[in-house]
Amino acid sequence: MDFLWSMDTCDVKMYFILIEEPGLSTLLINAGHICYIQESRYMSRLSRSESLQELPVICMGSSYDRFLKVNHLKPVTAKEAELLQALGDDSERLKWYLERDALSTALGLTKDTPVTVELDGKWLQGIVRYVGRLTEPKYTDPIVGTFFGIELQGEDKGKGPSDGTYLSKTLFPCKKDCGIFAPFSRVNPMFSKPKLVSKCLTFPAAQLATQPSSQQAHHQPLSTGDRVTFFMDEDILHGMVMDLEEKDGRTLVIISTDRDEKITLPLDSVIKGELLQQEPEPMETDKAVMSMEEVHPLGLGVDSLVEVTLAIGPGYGTIRWIGTLPGQKGTYAGLELEDGYIGVSNGTFKDHRFFRCLPRQGLFVKLLSCRPDSRFQGASANVLQERQALRSPGALPSSPIASDQVERMLIGRMKGIQGHINSCYMDSALFSLFSCSSVLDSVLFKSTEPRDAPIQSTLLHDIVNPLRSEGFVEGRHIMKLRQQLQELGYCHTFTTEEKDPEEFLTLIMHHIFCLDPLLKLSAGGKVQDSYCYQIFLDNNHSLVLPTVQHLLEHSFHSAGLKLAEVPSCLILQMPRFGKKFKMFQKIIPSLELDITDLLSEGPQQCVLCGQLAFEECVDCFRDPVFSRTGFKVFCRTCSSQVGRKHRLTHSTLCVYLS
Questions:
Q1: Which residues share a beta bridge with 132?
Q2: In this protein, which residues make up the domain named USP (predicted)?
Q3: How far apart are CA 479 and CA 136, in angstroms?
Q4: Apex CA 363: angle with CA 357 and CA 364, to 5°?
Q5: Model confidence, pTM
Q6: In Å, how far are 223, 229, 269, 271 from 226, measured between CA atoms?
Q7: Above 50 in pLDDT, residue 10?
Q8: How many secondary structure helices (H) and strands (E) does the chain include?
Q9: How far apart are CA 4 and CA 433, in angstroms?
């Protein structure tokens, strides 16, 4: 059945780092290399021997066992292994493994953490926006390196090499030259300011006794990373020492302030440590008291990119807070405006702090005054007015089912969508599109023709909302939808015959909601529009337990297809072969799909050296010389020097990439 994938329970792996050279030149591996073994295999060997002297581990980059001495291996967690794997050199990896504090600190770094990042020997200020892999694992490796995507802040904006995109894939949004991807060895957290527990301006004598006097603090030596206090415009400010330098016989302190500013002060103007001061008390958002009238009809929330109307025209920013303001009625949004737009706040309102941003970068507006950033979506500017009718209770789509709730809500008897008279393909399509994803929620409140409004209402009220809130949709609701589609003349056999997902999706998206095609497929220079892609395979494949990534690549290769552009949404139909024959017993879901090699245009990496590729060898797709399967693209150097003689036998040698 389409859209429903079977998943094997993968054997857990145990990871190790090699801390001593094996001593055998034939092994060709160095101290600092990451290795792994299946936990079941390890336990099996342990049960047969009281003391293990050697372990058959697989080293990253290879696919066969190497017997290494147990006392040469140190265990690491999977997350530690991924952090260390981001370091390209074995000796560097071993060095940072031995720096246990740095590795432990890196494990605690999360998104939105203020950090400093090293670039070309200089330390720049930024905020972590992404934590994860940059590429998919190779066929032989279970993991790849974990990198930190950092958006530069303050004076360091514009000093980076990236806009949050890696290999044509956007991992986090930021402005041009304001992003950096770095391993943990080049990232240090900027420790946050300690919060004041007491709300009183007068401190007990015992507490005051623990604070160093100004004179004492001035005489304490400073070093990089120290927290300091200084005075500016009669305000007490705090920051962190970035560097010390000597100039004209004076010691100057370079400080990164808590306002994301970089300043330089004489040493005698800086006090080591933090002098306690009262700061505006954060206000809690009481989301429980928000009425339905206070919820944004387009689902805008914290971290949404929005557009508002300012005196100078449209302004753009990010929602950092939602709630009620002292003395004001209704629900407000606290915006952090983009550079170039002047606000009136630093995240405070009437001496209460609601969020943090740079001075005059904050703005408080009514939530309903915000609209989605028009630069990133093609919705009509009148969507807000068009959807006022949907602001009655229960009219908005429920939130998709979270991953940690799937087992409770979707597995078991009377779960999912109840079938009704050959509706299985339609059921699975609706289940896959709406149960755990909100990508296509826009069709649930898009303007439609009056005659199609009942179909939209049935989808929202009788199918999507019950599926997400209760985990179950009764068969009568599916039959109601099929009857409506039949009565409106779209198809006279919708209640009696089985319908393919493609037929159903085309009807819903094209004829009823008038959506633009989601896919543009290129073949032989011609471009064809589609709403979904059916995976087809020829009989010459060698796949046994494939991933969705494998199936998609093989299907595109055998059909000679490419993507003419990056799709806004990629809907796939798994291969199906009737009730009696199955080509695969199981298909492993790919939680992420790398479509770089499927694009007809755009830069690609050489499979051998990682440099910019210029040509693709079509016949190398199934050739195991370079890897077991997959598209093979080469730079000019590798194409001419590596495997050239072997590839001369290929019937179609090279297709030059544009």
A1: 147
A2: 415-658
A3: 42
A4: 120
A5: 0.41
A6: 6, 10, 15, 10
A7: no
A8: 16, 35
A9: 11
